[in-house]
Design brief:
The complex is a heterodimer.
Chain A (H helix, E strand, L loop, with lengths): L3 H13 L4 E7 L9 H8 L8 E2 L6 E5 L5 E4 L2 E4 L2 E4 L31 E5 L5 H16 L3 E5 L17 H7 L3 E4 L2 H10 L7 E5 L5 E5 L11 E5 L5 H11 L11 H7 L18 E6 L4 H16 L3 E6 L13 E5 L5 H12 L3 E6 L4 E3 L8 E3 L1 H10 L2 E3 L2 H9 L4 E3 L6 H12 L9 E6 L9 H14 L5 E5 L6 H4 L4 E4 L6 H5 L3 E3 L4 E2 L2 E2 L4 H8 L4 E2 L24 H13 L1 H19 L1 H20 L1
Parallel strand pairs in A: 1-6, 7-8, 7-9, 9-10, 10-12, 13-14, 13-15, 15-16, 16-19, 19-20, 21-22, 21-24, 22-23, 24-27
Antiparallel strand pairs in A: 1-3, 2-6, 4-5, 11-12, 17-18, 25-26
Helix pairs in contact in A: 8-19, 13-17, 16-18, 18-19
Chain B lengths: L4 E7 L3 H13 L8 E7 L5 H11 L7 E5 L5 H12 L3 E5 L3 E2 L4 H9 L5 E8 L9 H6 L9 H11 L6 E2 L6 E4 L1 H7 L4 H4 L5 H11 L3 E12 L9 H15 L3 H11 L3 H11 L8 E5 L9 H13 L4 E8 L2 E9 L5 E8 L12 H13 L4 E4 L8 H5 L7 E4 L13 E2 L3 E2 L6 H13 L13 H13 L6 E4 L2 H7 L10 E3 L17 H6 L3 E5 L8 H10 L6 E5 L11 E2 L8 H8 L3 E4 L9 H9 L3 E4 L2 H10 L2 E4 L4 H13 L1 H13 L5 H14 L22 E3 L1
Parallel strand pairs in B: 1-2, 1-4, 2-3, 6-9, 10-11, 10-14, 14-15, 15-18, 18-19, 20-21, 20-23, 21-22, 23-24, 24-25
Antiparallel strand pairs in B: 4-8, 5-9, 6-8, 7-9, 11-12, 12-13, 16-17
Helix pairs in contact in B: 1-2, 13-26, 21-22
The chains are: A alpha/beta, B alpha/beta.
Chain lengths: 623, 718
Amino acid sequence: MIDEVARERLARQLQLQPPEVIGVAGEVGELPPGSSYRVLAEWRSLEPRAAVAPSTAAVRGAVLLRPGSRFEVIDGLVAADGRVAVDPGAHVHDPWTPLGALLDASPEGRPPFPRRPVVVFAATETDPVKADWARRMVNRLVRREVEGRLAVPWIGDGLHLTRPCLVGAASVEALAPDVIVALDAGAAAQAAQWCASNRATVVIEMIDDVEITQRLVSWQIARARGRVRAQIGPRIGAPKLARLVARLSSGPQPAPPTDAAADEAASPRVVRENWAGTRAASRPTCLIVTGERAASTTIRWAGFVDHLEAAGIGVATASAERELPAGARDASLVVLAGVDRSPAITKLITTRKASRLATVLDVEGASLAAAADAAHETVAVSPEVLRLARECGCAIAATESGRAALTRMQLPSLTVPAMLTRARTAALRSSAADAHVHGDRGIGWCVGWAGEPVAAYVDAVGDGIAKLLADRPDLRVDIIGDPDRAPAGLRRNRRVSIVSELEPEPDLIAAWALHVWTPRLVGGDVVDDIRPLLEASSAGVPSVLPPEGRPSLDGIAGNKLVVSRADEPEGWAAALSRLLDDEGARSGAGAEARRWASAVHGSSACRMTVNRVLGWAQYEAQS
Amino acid sequence: MSASVTVIVPVYRGIYDLTRCLESVVAHAARTEIDFELVLIDDATPEPAVRTYLEGFRTRGLPFPVTLLTNPENLGFVGTVNRGLRRATGDVVILNADTAVTAGWLDRLRAAASAGPDVATVTPVTSSGSICTLPQTVIHAFELEGPNPQIEECAEFVSATSLRLLPEVITGVGFCMYITRRALDLCGLLDEETFGKGYGEEVDFCLRATRLGLRHLVDDSTFVFHRGGGSFGDQQSEGLARGSRLLDERYPYFRPTNMRERAQDPSRVSFAALELGLYERDSTRPHILHIMHSAPGDTGGTEKFLDALMRSLESEFDFSVFFPVPSGFALETHWWHPDRAKRIERFLLPGGPRHVTRIDDEMAGAALQMALDLFTFDAVHVHNLIGHSIAPLAVLADFDGPVLCSVHDLFLACPNFSLLYRKVEPCGIPDDLTTCDRCLAVVAEAPMPGSPMITNLSRSYLNEFRSTVAARLDTVDHWVFASQNAADYFMRVYEPDPNRMEVIEHGSVIRLGRRASQPDRALIYDEPLRVAFVGMGWAKKGLDAVNSLADAFSDSSIEIHHFGDLKQAASPDLHTHGAYDNEFLPELLRRAGIQIVLLPGPYAETFGIVMSEALATGLPVIGAYYGALGERIRACGAGWTIDPMDHDGIRALIERLDRARDEVMRTTRQVLEVKLETVGDTSYRYAALYRNGTRHADGSDEQTAGTSGLAATGAERQ
C-alpha cells in the first residue's frame, strides 16, 4: 500500500531526476509500534528530497516509472528495465507482513501534521473476537481520517494498516490519544490513569449490548463520569464512530487545567530581551539598476523605492549606462529595470549567483506581446528580455498575465503591481476629500506615452467619447499623455484638454466625474500595469473599463462600470452616459474605488509587496 | 369662585400670540371635562389692539367663566400672576400669553397632578421651555420653530406616542405650570418682592415646595406650544440674568443640581419614545429585535455576523438592535421605508452611566422592557448579554413571539467567557469549582481585555449566575449554535431541551468566489513559508505564541506575519501589517504571499469567522484542537490542529510544514474543495425561525423550526 503522500512525493522526485532515471521507488518499511502506514509516510516525507539514492537491485515496494518504461514483478520485487532511484522519504506498506513483537508505542505513532484524531482501542484481556473487531475497525477508521491504534496484549491475524502496541501508560503517553476506546472493564478502569498527563483525552466505553449503537454520557457538571463521554456497542459502523470521535476530540477538556501554564505566563521571559535591541546590521539592502526606460517605468520604480525605504530597507539606484557601484555585488537584492543585456550585467549576475544573492529582472508591460504562433493568443515575453530573465534566474512583472508568461517559460516569477509613492497617495486622497471640485471636469483618460504599445481598441474608446461630447455640450474631457496618441477627432475638440504630465495634478484627477481605463489586452488579459486605475481610484474617481480589466479591481467593479465589449464605441458612450446621469451610482462606485485603493494598494499593502519580493528573491537565490 | 381650576393668563403685549393662545383655549374648552375659569389680567398693555381684543373676548359668551382684570399700571409678570393667584380657590394654571394649548390639555394636566398627594406642579412638554422642550427632531418634524407650526398635529402625535412616564424634575417651567392647591396653600404666592417683574420666580416657588416635600412632574403626554420670549420681549435676557443671580444667592445648590439634571435628563426616556415614534415603520414587514453587547458596526465577529445577517434579510425584515452604551442602552433601528430608503437611527434608552455587572440588573431589564413597549416586535434574537446582565431573559419570558439565542460566546456558561483559566489556559469548564475559585479571583482583579470588571466574582457568584440562567433557559425557544462544539460546551453547564437546539454555521461574512481553482504552486514551493496570524493582537487570540514563533524563526526563512490591531507588544521579528479592511482580507493575504493562516488563540472559538475568511482566500489554517476550530479543521481537512499552550509544538509543526511543502500543497487543495457559504446563504434558516418559530409556554406548542437532536444523553438504536 502506498499513501497519497508518498505517491505525490515519488511523482515530484521523478520530475527532478535526469532522463536516464526511468523510475523512483519507495521501499516497503516496518512501522514503528503504534503507528499507521499513513503516519509513517508523513514522517518520511520530511526527509530532504536530495536523499534519493540509485538502486542497484530490484525493489520491494512501489516504483513510479516514466511512461513506456518496462518492468517485471517477480516474487514481490519490482525489476525495471533501466535506472531506478530509491527515495527513503517515500514509505510503502505491506499490510500482510508479519508484525513484530508488541512494544510500547513510539512517539512517531502520532501524525507529524496533526489533524486526524488519534484513537487508541485498548484492551487488557485477550478476547480474539473483540480484538478482531477492533482490528477491522481500526483499519476502517484509518481510511476515514481517524488514526485508530490497537493497544492490546495479543495480536490477531489479518490485514493491518497500523502496528499494534502494548497496552499501558507508556503507549498512551507516547500516542497522546484524543480518545481511548476501552474494549473491556480492565481498560475502562485504567484508562483515566493511563492518560493522566493529557487533560484532553476522553474515554468511550465499549459495551456488549448489540441493541446500542452509540450513547452519549452526559458531561454536564455534577453529572459527568470523569473522562467517559460515550458508550458504543459492537454494531457501530466506522462512519458513525469517526463522527463521534471527531466531536468528542473538540472538547471541552474533561480534566481541569493546572497552575503551571498560568504561573509560567506570569513569570518574566528572557526570550524578550532582544526586543529592545536594533537589528540595523542585518537589514537587507536593495539596488535598482536602471537602463533606458519609458517615462511611465520611471514612476513605477519611484513607488517601489519609496516603499522599500518605508520598510526600513537600504535602497539605492544606479544607471546601467555607468559603472555600477561596488555595493551591487553584495546587496541583498538587485533589480534590473529597463536594462538590456551587456557583459557588465552578465558579470554582475554571475558574481551574485556565486554568492547566492538574487538578481531579478523587471519585465515591463512593453516587453509583453501576443505569442505569434500560438493557436490561442497568449501573452509572451520578448526573446531578448527572456534571455536576460533566464540569466537572472527569476523575474518580476507588473501584471498577472506577465507573470503567467514567465511561468510558462519555467521562470520563477512574482507579480509586483504598480505602487504609488506615499506622497502621491496622500495628495490624491487629500484632493478626493475636497468635495467642491469633484466631478467638475467630466471625463479623464490616460492614453499613454511615446514608445509604449497602444491598446488595440483605443479608436473605439475615442469614438465613444467623441459621440458623448457631441451629445453633451457641457461635457469636458482631459486626456493624459502624449498629444500624438490622442485620437485626432478629440484633439481638435475645444472641450478636450491634453495634459502631458507624467503625474497630473491630484486636483485635476479628483475633479473628474469618471475615469476611462484602457489597458492593453493580449489574449483576453491585461498587460499594462494598473497605475492609472490606481490613481483615479485613490482620488475617489470611478473607472469605466473593458470586461477584461475587471479582475484588476478585485471584484469591486459593478456592472455599470464595465462595458460589454472593448471595441464598440457605442458601448463606451452608453456606459459613460449612464454613469454621468447617475450621480448616486457614481458616488457609490467612487467610494468603493477609494476603499479598494486604500485597502489593497495602500502603504501597508505596498510594504507587504516589497517584503514579499525580498523574501522570495532571497529564497530563490538560496534554493 | 367655584371652578376646580383657574387658568391665569397675564397679558402685556403681542396681539398675534395672545389671539392664538386664547383661541386655543376656546377651541378645546368644549371637550374639557373639568370645570375651569379663565382669568385674563391686562398688565397695562401699551397696545390698544390688545385691550380691544381682551374686551371683546370677555364679552363673547364663552362656555366657561372669563374674568378680565386690568392693572392700573404695569406690575410685571410676578405681580400680575399673584393678583390672579389671590383670586383662585382651587388648582391654578399659569399660562403665558405666547402659548397655544391643545386638545385635552387641562384634563391631562389635572390627571397628572392627581398622581399623588405630594405633587406640587405639572408642566407639559413644549416647543420652548427649558427641560420640557421637545427633542429637536420632533420640533423640526412639526415645524414648531417655523411660521406655521403644526401645533395640533404635534399634540396628537405626543399624546399617541407618549409613554406617560410623568418624569420628575427639580422645578416646573413657568410657561404653562399647573399648581396644586396644596402647594399654593403650603408655599403661598410667587415672591414678587425678590423677583420683581419676572424670571426665576417659578423656580423659587418650586424649590420652596420641594423643601416641603412636594414634587414636580412633567406631563409627557401633553403638548402646549410656547413661542418663547413673548412676555417680556427684549427684556428677556436682562430678566434671565437677574433671576439667575437671585436664585444662586438663595439656593446655592440649585445650579449644580440643575446641571446634573440636565446631564441626566429625566425626560430622556419619554423623549426617546417620541423620537422613535416619528419614524413610522411599515407594519406589514416583520420586525426583529437583536440584543447585542456592543454597537452594530464595531469590530468583532458577532458584529460582523449581525451586519451580514441583517443585510441578507433586509428585503423581508425590519430590524432594531438593542445594546449597552456608557450612559445606558441604545436602540438602533434598521428599517426599510416605503420610499425604499434604509433608515438607521439610534436612540438612547434609560440606564446608568456604568457597566452592568450584576447578575440581574433592574435597569437593564427596564431598558429592554422599554424597547419592547416602544414597538411591536415579531421575534427577539439574543446575540450576547454582556453588559445586560441576565435580566433580559426574565423580561423576554413574557414576550409573545419567538426568542432566539445565538451562542456566539460562552458568557452564559461563565462571566469569564474566554474560558481561559487565570486568563491563560483553556479551562474546559471544570467540574471542580475550586479551580473556578482560583481563576475568578484573578479575573476579578483584572478582567480579560474587553470584559467588564466584576469585583465580586467568586464561586458563589458563579453558582448564582448559572442558577439564574438555568432557571430562565425556557425563555429561549431556539438555542442557535454556530458549531456542534459550541453546543457541547454549553451542555457542560446546562441541559436545554434538545428540541430547541440547532446548529447553524455562520457562513462567511465576506464575499466568496475569490479563491483560485488551483493552488498557486510557485507560491507554495518557491517562496519562503509565510504564516499569518489574523485577528486582534492580544493574548486571548494567541499573540504570545506568535511572538515566540517570530523570535524562534528570526534566523530562518520562515516568516510570521500579523494582520490586525496590536493590543500588546509584538516581537520585532513579527511582520506586522496593522488594521485591515476586512472585506479585502483575501487580497491582502495574497499580496503578502501568505500560505497558511495561524489562529493560535487558546480561546475555544464557537465558530471562527477568520477561519472562514482564510478558507475563502484558499488558505489552510492552523488552529486549536478544541473548540469550533478543531471541529471544523477535522471535518474538512482544511489545516492542522495544535495545542495553543504548546508553543514548541506549534514551532515544530511549522518547521515540518516548511520542509514538507507537499503537505501544504495537499492541504491547500483540500481547502479549495471545501464548500463555503456566506451568511446570506444560511440566513434563510434564521428567517424561518423568525417567521415560524413558536412559543413553548405550555410545553405543547408546535415546534415549526428544524430540530437537530443535540441531546447529550439518550440511546440511539439501529
